């Protein structure tokens, strides 16, 4: 039995107990049916998948998204990406130590013709943007092929267990990402115009306006190579995660938030015991909350800026659960030999320079990087260079919330239909909606608690203007409104004691994506009202009769209070309500209860000497920052020359991770972007074996 | 005032950089101009890096023999690793027709003292154990030929040329050539003007643009018949070293007339094919047809490549001439204008030997009989009657 599986989860259903047996270094292991090798290894506590051919340093999972090649293992003798290759019964998996040896092949395999498929529209990516585009295109009666490299539709929505912000009517705000993905996917599945190719990766857009697709299926992982010739291309390929340059950043256990969410929320693997988060944007904050929901301790979070960039309600969720947010701090090093065992952080000044004497080291086994996203826009660029008609949407166009991606997807869908002659307009209101949904969080406003003390009424603890309105849709008596009807404002409650008033239905409490609404119920005991608090942690962690620590919205401890009742309403989709009785003086401050098991990790103050003396920039070729700096200082201003000199961007991922970091190093060296010649983009998007191009795949069986 | 030099080389590529090194080592004040931001960014970096002397044209044989020597001794003399591997070339034969072509060629090659032999099937399989034995008749094997990294070699030549005193100006496009009294006197770029009594056209696929500049300044029309063709190439992930010689398959197949590849010392397999019909022009964007064409040829030759993953592809330009041999020499009617153009896709292997010849042409009053023979073969104004047997 794999020891690191999540057996119960407050939001996600647990999986069947079916297993598939395989071996790791000749030891018997088990996987869930269809599970990727990487997840199955993590479920057994294996984090180190091999050692790099250049310097023998350990490597393991990094992107969990098929984009890099850090998770290579040998499966039945072939080097494969562990994150994209499912376990099959009896598979023999070994770590990849250095360069692989090609397995012997006695005869060339039978070769077939490479099929060219013509289609009015090809959509790359089945996330919120791609699905929304497909629905619009299908509604116009136009046929499209939608390609996604995962085995289910939804993109990153399937990793999002939290309720979404935005507009309830337009983009399903208040609904969990996982459920939005199912709604969108169902609409796409219902449209006969849309053909979905799952497990299929776009590998290049060529100058003859064909898009190469490696079409796989669970039964045929090697897949068949197909050329698609669309009249219009829609690129909804999402984003890739930024990285950071610090010593130890290639250690197994340092990886992106997307990888963590994939392991935990898609595959229900307890990927970490003690997690440390780098980055206080929405992604880092949300992922920290996901970790706590999965029973994983979050040791802390560093944010280089004086305030977290993500929504305050997300940061507050972590604060209430006792996670220390180290603002104006950055990561100094990841420490460990074969995998991460601790992190050293340091305070920084306004110029992000480390402050002497502020380094602290925390024990942790995983360092989660959530330091921003970059658009996956190379397909758009290639298509433009091939003079194709191309529209982009979602994060591939510009980084924003999934709610905005749904709208830019709809717009791209309409644009594609128009390009094919359909008589439809893109409503101007859609563009306006995108701007609203993309709006940055506003300033934090001072807000007085409601003046009333009688009856039952909601307290809005949100103090930051963000585009979000599920609470207005939640109230059955329409008593929650925005000034000017602009969902970027803070909501106000219109109920009047004696007039039309709150019924205490608690729908707003459970629907608020920020978990920032409580209900004060003074009806039975005005001196000790009952506070209804939203609660989304594992069932049974708090039960009636417990004495719990109640905290305010930002996690400041207010009192110990008795739990009166814990319930999950049917309509509440797994969001529970904890009811506590508190003195009326603090009734309107109480916003959360601390996890009973929360423990704060104590740091040590010595600086751990990191392995190696420099930080890696190019993971694939293990090129460190000082080597790149020395070439720049010697006059190199052409990234193409840097490729020759240092081999950056020449590895398996083709510069997906290091290209933005190299730009940052140029900036740090005082070189303006105009002085730097960017590198020439090279096909392919991922590495593809010769046999696929030779047409050896069994396409018939992948239909 | 114009910046003055002894020699201006237009093009910091496979020919221009070694020529700059050879000239600078002779104490010549040489300036190299290139429109790209760094050396070797044109066709040079698109070359896969094979180096052989086993041609059929005597001029190419002689130049490449010297290139081989330079590549072979490079690391010992200069200390840079350029991944030179003297792994030999093997032209393989799976049909009688190829056997006849290759064996006929051996006679010419032996006449120039080249070390190349016909190897029967089983002996060839000893040299290349992973070659597909089915239908294999044998092949030629020339153990002195080899390959290296064009990127590393190009940059090594550049560094040594700069260290020897050559001046390189990047990001400058030559827009005009000045001619006075029938002799070139300098060039102008979008940044500034330079003067020199000798201008070497080493502009690769753009050679004719420089010709046009000279013609415009002198009202003498030039017609150096260099036309550009696009070829695609690619490289794989690195794997344990298993393939020593560079393999060439000259069987024509629909879409391609030949295919060649080798494994770099660091483990990556680098490959190329010659499209049939040729693709004229300057388009350097990848096509969808290349990988399917080249993949089936390669796994047919070496089945073990089946599971090897392709990492990147690219497209480069072959400056072609009517007979498959370069155009090298002083342009007869204009003084001081030296052309070294039309390398037909072999600039990388010709470059080091040719660079030294160009330096001798500039610095020596009389050339050796062998140099004169080479130049007679490569004369820019020659009649194009011959045809290189294996381009």
Primary descriptors:
heterodimer, A: 703 residues, alpha/beta, FAD/NAD(P)-binding domain, 4 domains, 7-stranded mixed β-sheet, 16 helices, 36 strands, disordered C terminus, B: alpha/beta, D-Amino Acid Oxidase, Chain A, domain 2, 2 domains, 6-stranded mixed β-sheet
What does this protein look like?
The complex is a heterodimer of chains A (703) and B (391). Chain A has 703 residues and is an alpha/beta fold. Chain A folds into four domains: 20-101 and 243-369, FAD/NAD(P)-binding domain, CATH 3.50.50; 116-239 and 375-438, FAD/NAD(P)-binding domain (3-Layer(bba) Sandwich); 456-593, no CATH class; 616-675, Orthogonal Bundle (Arc Repressor Mutant, subunit A). In chain A, 21% of the residues lie in helices and 25% in strands. Chain A is built from 16 helices and 36 strands. In chain A, strands 1, 2, 3, 4, 5, 6 and 7 form a seven-stranded mixed β-sheet that branches. In chain A, strands 8, 9, 10, 11, 12, 13 and 24 form a seven-stranded mixed β-sheet that branches. In chain A, strands 25-28-29-32-31-30-33 form a seven-stranded antiparallel β-sheet. In chain A, a hairpin with a 5-residue loop joins strand 30 and strand 31. In chain A, helix 5 runs parallel beside helix 6. Chain A starts with 19 loop residues before the first strand and ends in a 10-residue tail after the last helix. In chain A, 56% of the residues are buried. With 391 residues, chain B is of the alpha/beta class. Chain B folds into two domains: 3-49 and 151-226 and 323-378, 3-Layer(bba) Sandwich (FAD/NAD(P)-binding domain), CATH 3.50.50; 86-144 and 227-319, D-Amino Acid Oxidase, subunit A, domain 2 (D-Amino Acid Oxidase, Chain A, domain 2). Chain B has ten helices and 20 strands. Chain B has helices spanning 16-25, 43-46, 58-78, 96-111, 121-127, 150-163, 207-218, 290-301, 347-363, 369-378; strands at residues 3-4, 7-10, 30-34, 50-51, 89-93, 117-120, 138-142, 146-147, 167-170, 174-180, 183-189, 193-195, 198-201, 227-238, 246-249, 255-263, 268-276, 309-320, 327-330, 337-341. In chain B, the strands form four sheets. In chain B, strands 6-7-5-15-16-17-14-18 form an eight-stranded mixed β-sheet, sandwiched between helices. In chain B, helix 3 (58-78) crosses helix 9. The longest helix of chain B is centred in the N-terminal third of the chain and has 21 residues, at 58-78. Chain B is globular and about 65 Å long. Chains A and B meet through helix 14, strand 36 and helix 16 of A and helix 6, strand 14, helix 8 and strand 18 of B.
């Amino acid at each position: 039995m794999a020891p690191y599986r999540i057996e119960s989860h407050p939001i996600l259903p647990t999986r069947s107990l079916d297993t598939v047996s395989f071996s790791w270094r000749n030891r018997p292991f088990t996987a869930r049916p269809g599970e990727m090798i990487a997840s199955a290894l993590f479920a057994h506590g294996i984090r180190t998948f091999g050692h790099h051919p250049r310097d023998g340093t350990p490597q393991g999972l990094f992107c969990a998204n098929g984009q890099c090649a850090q998770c290579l293992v040998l499966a039945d003798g072939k080097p494969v990406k562990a994150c994209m290759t499912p376990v099959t019964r009896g598979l023999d998996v070994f770590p990849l130590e250095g360069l692989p040896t090609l397995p012997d092949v006695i005869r060339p395999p039978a070769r077939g013709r490479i099929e060219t498929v013509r289609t009015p529209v090809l959509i790359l990516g089945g996330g919120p943007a791609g699905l929304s585009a497909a629905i619009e295109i299908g509604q116009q009666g136009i046929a499209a092929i939608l390609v996604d490299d995962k085995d289910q539709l939804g993109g990153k929505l399937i990793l999002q267990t939290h309720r979404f912000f935005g507009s309830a009517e337009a983009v399903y705000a208040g609904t969990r990402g996982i459920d939005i993905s199912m709604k969108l996917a169902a609409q796409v599945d219902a449209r006969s115009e849309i053909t979905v190719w799952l497990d299929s990766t776009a590998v290049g857009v060529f100058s003859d306006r064909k898009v190469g697709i490696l079409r796989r299926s669970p039964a045929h992982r090697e897949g068949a190579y197909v050329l698609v010739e669309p009249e219009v291309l829609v690129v909804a390929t999402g984003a890739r995660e930024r990285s950071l340059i610090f010593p130890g950043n290639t250690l197994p256990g340092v990886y992106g938030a997307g990888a963590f969410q994939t392991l935990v929320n898609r595959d229900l693997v307890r990927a970490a015991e003690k997690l440390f988060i780098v980055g206080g944007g929405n992604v880092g904050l949300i992922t920290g909350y996901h970790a706590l929901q999965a029973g994983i301790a979050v040791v802390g979070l560093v944010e280089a800026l004086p305030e977290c960039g993500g929504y305050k309600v997300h940061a507050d969720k972590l604060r209430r659960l006792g996670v220390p947010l180290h603002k104006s701090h950055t990561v100094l090093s990841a420490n460990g030999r074969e995998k991460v065992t601790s992190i050293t952080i340091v305070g920084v000044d306004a110029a992000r320079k480390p402050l002497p004497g502020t380094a602290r080291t925390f024990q942790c086994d995983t360092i989660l990087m959530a330091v921003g996203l970059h658009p996956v826009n190379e397909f758009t660029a290639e298509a433009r260079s091939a003079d194709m008609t191309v529209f982009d949407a979602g994060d591939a166009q510009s980084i924003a919330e999934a709610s905005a991606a749904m709208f830019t997807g709809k717009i791209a869908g309409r644009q594609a239909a128009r390009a094919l002659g359909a008589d439809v307009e893109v409503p101007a209101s859609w563009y306006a909606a995108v701007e609203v949904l993309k709006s940055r969080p506003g300033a934090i406003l001072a807000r007085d608690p409601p003046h009333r003390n009688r009856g039952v009424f909601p307290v809005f603890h949100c103090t930051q203007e963000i585009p979000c309105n599920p609470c207005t849709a939640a109230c059955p008596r329409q008593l929650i409104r925005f000034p000017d009807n602009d969902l970027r404002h803070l909501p106000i409650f219109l109920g009047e004691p004696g007039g039309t008033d709150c019924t205490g239905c608690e729908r707003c409490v459970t629907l608020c994506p920020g978990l920032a609404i409580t209900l004060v119920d003074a009806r039975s005991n005005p001196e000790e009202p009952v506070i209804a608090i939203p609660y989304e942690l594992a069932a049974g962690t708090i039960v009636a009769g417990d004495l719990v620590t109640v905290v305010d919205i930002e996690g400041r401890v207010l009192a110990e209070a008795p739990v009166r009742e814990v319930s999950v309403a049917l309509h509440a989709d797994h969001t529970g309500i904890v009811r506590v009785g508190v003195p009326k003086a603090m009734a309107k401050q109480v916003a959360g209860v601390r996890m009973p098991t929360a423990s704060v990790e104590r740091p040590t103050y010595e600086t751990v000497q990191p392995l190696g003396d420099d930080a890696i920039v190019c993971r694939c070729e293990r090129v460190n920052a000082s080597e790149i700096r020395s070439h720049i200082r010697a006059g190199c201003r052409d990234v193409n020359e840097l490729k020759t000199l240092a081999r950056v961007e020449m590895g398996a991922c083709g510069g997906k991770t290091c290209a933005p970091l190299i730009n940052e190093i140029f900036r740090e060296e005082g070189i303006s972007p105009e002085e730097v010649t960017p590198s020439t983009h090279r096909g392919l998007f991922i590495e593809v074996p010769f046999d696929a191009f030779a047409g050896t795949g069994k396409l018939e069986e992948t239909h | 005032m114009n910046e003055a030099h002894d020699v201006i080389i237009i093009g910091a590529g496979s020919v221009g950089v070694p020529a700059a090194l050879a000239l600078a080592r002779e104490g010549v004040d040489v300036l190299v101009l290139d429109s790209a931001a760094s050396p070797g960014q044109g066709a040079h970096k698109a070359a896969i890096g094979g180096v052989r002397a086993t041609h059929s044209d005597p001029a190419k044989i002689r130049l490449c023999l010297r290139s081989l020597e330079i590549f072979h001794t490079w690391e010992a003399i200069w200390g840079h690793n350029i991944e030179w591997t003297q792994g030999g070339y093997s032209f393989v034969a799976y049909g009688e027709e190829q056997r006849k072509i290759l064996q006929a060629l051996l006679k010419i090659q032996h006449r120039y003292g080249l070390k190349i032999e016909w190897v029967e099937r089983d002996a060839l399989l000893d040299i290349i154990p992973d070659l597909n034995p089915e239908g294999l008749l044998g092949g030629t094997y020339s153990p002195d030929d080899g390959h290296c990294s064009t990127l590393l070699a190009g940059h090594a030549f550049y560094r040594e040329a700069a260290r020897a005193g050559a001046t390189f100006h990047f990001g400058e496009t030559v827009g005009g050539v000045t001619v006075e009294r029938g002799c070139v006197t300098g060039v102008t770029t979008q940044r500034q003007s330079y003067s020199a009594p000798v201008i070497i056209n080493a502009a690769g696929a753009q050679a004719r643009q420089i010709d046009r500049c000279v013609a415009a300044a002198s009202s003498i029309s030039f017609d150096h018949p260099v036309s550009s063709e696009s070829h695609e190439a690619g490289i794989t992930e690195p794997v344990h070293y298993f393939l020593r010689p560079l393999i060439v398959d000259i069987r024509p197949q629909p879409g391609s007339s030949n295919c060649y590849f080798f494994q770099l010392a660091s483990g990556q397999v680098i490959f190329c094919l010659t499209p049939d019909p040729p693709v004229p022009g300057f388009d350097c964007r990848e096509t969808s047809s290349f990988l399917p064409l080249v993949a089936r040829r390669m796994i047919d030759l070496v089945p073990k490549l089946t599971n090897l993953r392709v990492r990147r592809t690219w497209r480069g330009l072959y400056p072609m001439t009517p007979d498959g041999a370069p155009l090298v020499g002083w342009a007869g009617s204009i003084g001081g204008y030296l052309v070294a153009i039309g390398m037909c896709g072999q600039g990388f292997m010709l470059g080091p030997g040719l660079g030294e010849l160009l330096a001798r042409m500039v610095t020596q009053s009389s050339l050796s009989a062998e140099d004169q023979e080479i130049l007679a073969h490569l004369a820019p104004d020659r009649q194009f009657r011959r045809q290189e047997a294996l381009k």
